[in-house]
Write a structure and sequence with these properties.
With 442 residues, the protein is an alpha/beta fold. 39% of the residues lie in helices and 12% in strands. The chain binds uridine-5'-diphosphate.
Length: 442
C-alpha cells in the first residue's frame, strides 16, 4: 500500500525577508484558495529576525492557515561565514548548507510532496526533481522583464564576444513580446512560465503593530489625502551617512509631509542590514542631521528600522513612495496606486528603476551628483519630492499607477488571468498521484 501522502506541495525559500514574503503569500494562496496541504521550508540562521518572526511565527502574531505547515530547517551559524562575503555568496552558502536537511524532509513519506516549488536562489534544489521524481517549479520573485532577460542570456552569450559590460552600445534584449519555446536556443529548454502575480502581502493588521508603528498610522489618519511621502529601502537597504544627511536635508527643504523609516548608516554596502532588519540598536537622533527631528516635528514622522509598509502604502493619506525598487516594494506600491521616486541600491533594483521610470512611467529617478559616488544631493531630493507631491508630472505618474492598480485587481480576482493560471497549476497538482507512477519524468 502507498503510504498516506500528507503534503501536496513543498515550498523552499532562500534566506531573506524579501523572498520569504512573496513565497509565503503564494503558499497561503495554495492552501487557502486552492485547498492544498503545503509544507513551507525555511532556511534558518542563528541570528534573530523579528521581521521574519512576525510573518511566520504564531507566537509573534502571524496568522497561518491550518493546512500550511512551516518547517524550520536546522540553523546555520552566520559567524562561520566571513564578514566580507557578498550578499549573493552568503545566500548561496546558506542554501548549500541546508540542502541535506531539505532532502531529509522531502524523503520522509509523510512530507514527500507531489511538487516542489523553489525560490530562484535555491536552484541547487532542482536536482531533487530527478532524484525523487517530483516536478520542480521555480517561483520567480521579480519581474517578467528580468525573466525575459535571464532567458535571453544564453543567446547574448553566443552573440557577444568577451564581457557584456564591454559592449560599445546597449545590450539589445527583445522587450515584453512572448517567445515560442521552440524558437529559443538549444542550451535552454524553456520551462513553462506561469504568470500568477502580483503576489503581495495583505496590509498589516493592527494586532501586529508595535506601538510606534501604530502611532505612525494614527498620524497618517490625520493628514489630507495623498499628502504624505513614504520612505523606506526594503528589508535591509541602508545609506551612507553622507547620503542619509542629504536625504534628510532634501526632505526638510521640500516641506512635504513624510513617514521615513530610518536605519543606522553604513559604508559597507547598500544591503547592510539584510539579515538583521529590525534589530538596529542606536537611535535616529544619533545619525540624522542635527536638529532635524525638532525642525520637522509635525511635518513628518521618523520610524526606526521597520514600518508596516503595506498598511502605509494602502493608506489614503500616502501620496508617493521613495523606494529602493525591490520587486515586492514595487508591486506593493503599484497595487496601491502609489507612484514612486526610484532610488535603487543593489541587486536588480537599477533595472527595475529604469523600467518603472522610462517604460511604464510610474516613477521618477533622481539624478546623482556624479557617477562615482552615486550621491543624490539635497537640492535634487527637494526637486523630485516637490515634483511628485505637488507637480503636474506627479499627477500623471499617479494616474498611471492607478491604472496598474486596477489591472492588478482584475488579474487577481476570481476568473482573472492570474487567478486562472494558478488554478490550472493547482488542478494539475491535485490530480497527481506520484506513488502510482514512480518513474514519471520531471
Ligand atoms: N518591508 C516592510 N517594512 C519596511 C521595509 C520593508 O514591511 O520598513 C517589507 C515590504 O513590504 C516588502 C519587503 O519588506 O514586502 C521588502 O521586499 P523588497 O523586494 O521590496 O526588497 P528587498 O528587501 O528584497 O530588498
Amino acid at each position: 500500500d502507498n503510504p498516506k501522502q500528507a503534503v501536496d506541495v513543498a515550498v523552499l525559500v532562500s534566506p531573506g525577508i524579501g523572498h520569504t514574503i512573496p513565497l509565503f503569500e503564494f503558499s497561503k494562496r495554495l492552501s487557502v484558495d486552492h485547498g492544498l496541504e503545503v509544507c513551507f521550508l525555511v532556511i534558518t540562521t542563528n541570528e534573530p529576525s523579528p521581521a521574519q518572526d512576525s510573518l511566520l511565527r504564531p507566537e509573534a502574531g502571524a496568522v497561518i492557515p491550518p493546512n500550511l505547515h512551516v518547517v524550520d530547517l536546522p540553523p546555520t551559524d552566520l559567524s562561520t561565514i566571513p564578514e566580507d562575503t557578498t550578499l549573493g555568496d552568503r545566500i548561496s552558502l546558506l542554501v548549500k548548507r541546508s540542502l541535506e536537511s531539505v532532502r531529509v524532509v522531502l524523503l520522509e513519506p509523510t512530507s514527500r510532496p507531489k511538487a516542489l516549488v523553489i525560490d530562484i536562489f535555491c536552484s541547487e534544489a532542482l536536482e531533487f526533481g530527478q532524484e525523487l521524481s517530483i516536478p520542480v517549479y521555480t517561483f520567480f520573485t521579480t519581474c517578467a522583464a528580468l525573466l525575459t532577460f535571464s532567458l535571453y542570456l544564453p543567446t547574448l552569450d553566443h552573440e557577444v564576444e568577451g564581457e557584456f559590460t564591454d559592449m560599445p552600445g546597449p545590450i539589445r534584449v527583445p522587450g515584453c513580446r512572448s517567445y515560442r519555446p521552440e524558437d529559443l536556443l538549444d542550451p535552454i529548454p524553456a520551462p513553462p512560465v506561469y504568470t500568477i502575480g502580483p503576489v503581495i502581502k495583505q496590509a498589516e493588521g493592527s494586532e501586529m503593530l508595535t506601538p510606534s508603528n501604530a502611532e505612525s498610522l494614527t498620524w497618517l489618519d490625520r493628514r489630507p489625502p495623498e499628502s504624505v511621502l513614504f520612505i523606506t529601502f526594503g528589508s535591509g537597504g541602508t545609506l551612507t551617512i553622507e547620503q542619509l544627511t542629504e536625504l534628510g536635508w532634501g526632505l526638510e527643504l521640500s516641506q512635504q509631509r513624510f513617514v521615513w523609516v530610518v536605519r543606522a548608516p553604513t559604508d559597507v554596502s547598500g544591503s547592510g542590514t539584510f539579515f538583521k532588519a529590525g534589530s538596529t540598536k542606536s537611535g535616529p537622533e544619533e545619525y540624522l542631521p542635527e536638529g532635524f527631528l525638532e525642525r520637522t516635528r509635525g511635518l513628518g514622522v521618523v520610524v526606526q528600522s521597520w514600518a508596516p509598509q503595506m498598511a502605509i502604502l494602502g493608506h489614503s493619506s500616502t501620496g508617493a513612495f521613495i523606494s529602493h525598487c525591490g520587486w515586492n516594494s514595487t508591486l506593493e506600491s503599484l497595487s496601491c496606486g502609489v507612484p514612486l521616486i526610484a532610488w535603487p541600491l543593489y541587486a536588480e533594483q537599477r533595472m527595475n528603476a529604469a523600467m518603472l521610470a522610462e517604460d511604464i512611467g510610474v516613477a521618477i529617478r533622481p539624478v546623482t551628483m556624479d557617477q562615482g559616488t552615486g550621491l543624490v544631493g539635497r537640492d535634487e531630493v527637494e526637486r523630485v519630492v516637490r515634483m511628485v507631491m505637488e507637480g503636474e508630472e506627479g499627477k500623471a505618474l499617479r494616474r498611471r499607477a492607478r491604472d496598474l492598480k486596477d489591472s492588478a485587481e482584475k488579474a487577481l480576482s476570481c476568473g482573472g488571468t492570474s487567478w486562472e493560471t494558478l488554478a490550472t497549476v493547482c488542478r494539475e497538482w491535485k490530480s497527481k498521484d506520484i506513488y502510482a507512477a514512480p518513474n514519471n519524468k520531471c
